[in-house]
Write a structure and sequence with these properties.
Blueprint (H helix, E strand, L loop, with lengths): L1 H53 E3 L4 E7 L2 E7 L2 E4 L2 H7 L1
Antiparallel strand pairs: 1-4, 2-3
């Protein structure tokens, strides 16, 4: 009878350990995201400037930075209204 209690307690400890690991991973991702906030803002501004040399954007540029499997992933999404003509590109450059 006591072996049943010991086994249940050991199983509960393993589950708690795995839950703690998952919580720690979530906290680390959140901390990294907080640090990257200013970086994402700077990236958005610079990417928008570069893109506007070649295309006319329809609306706001969306930039996100996430982490997965220990690597940072930068995602950029832009709705392009129209491409700039070659003659207007030569004037910009």
């Amino acid at each position: 009878m006591f072996s049943w209690f010991r086994r249940k307690r050991a199983d509960a400890g393993f589950g708690s350990r795995e839950q703690a690991k998952k919580r720690l991973a979530i906290v680390l991702v959140h901390d990294r995201a907080e640090i990257a906030g200013d970086l994402v803002t700077l990236l958005r501004e610079r990417l928008r400037g570069v893109l506007e040399e070649f295309v006319e954007l329809a609306d706001e540029l969306k930039v996100e930075m996430n982490t997965a499997e220990g690597a940072a992933i930068l995602t950029c999404a832009a709705r392009i209204k129209q491409l700039r003509r070659r003659s207007s590109l030569e004037m910009v450059g």
